[in-house]
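Long-time lurker. I teach an intro course on protein structure, and each term I like to show students one example going from raw sequence to a predicted 3D structure in token notation. This year I'd like something fresh instead of my usual example. Would anyone be willing to generate the tokens for the chain below so I can use it in lecture? Attribution to the forum is fine with me.
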Amino acid sequence: MEVSIINTVFNLEGHIISAVPFGNGHINDTFRLFNQEASKPDYLLQRINHLIFTEVEQMMLNIRRVTEHVNQRLPGSTLELIGTRVGGNFHRDADGNYWRIYRFRKELQSIDVAETPAQIYEGAKAFGRFLFHLADFPAHTLHPTIPHFHDVIFRLQQLKEAVHRDSQGRVKAALAEIDYSFQITEIMERIQKAGKRGGNSPPSDP
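-- Reply from a regular --
Happy to contribute to a lecture. Here you go:
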């Protein structure tokens, strides 16, 4: 996506002068956008893989609603989606590609593989805080954008079928991991069934 189009389409502060590939993602294509004005923010541009996320409009509406809900309770604590100048959550170009933009947070660092227990602790704490601020979010209003994506019972059945077929001859090398997955089947199914019944009152502030 050309920089000139980015400046025209999205509701950005300042003026974007360049874009470079960013991060190690393997699903979407991500680019850091550099602002001409030092006092204005940089941004992250992503080309959404619409072969995987086929319901782009619904997915982006989910993201908008969840991030705004959390940011209202704890400003600046999660992603900030930048809309288009016409009020949309994404832009579709002439080639059929879908693009979205987030504000770039220079003070934050994304770690692909934790190197210390402290990093694991901080990641878990941040995730817990994120969930806490979603405790009163009406989850039933979100759109399912990938069918059965978080359906543990469905995924376990898929695993059983894959193990039985062993079409790539990999089962023997992964027996420990497969056995562990089946050992905790009851726990995972219990959690999913409890979620479908509805949760209890929100937890206390972590």
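Some talking points for your students: The first strand starts at residue 16 and ends at 21. DSSP finds six helices and six strands in the chain.
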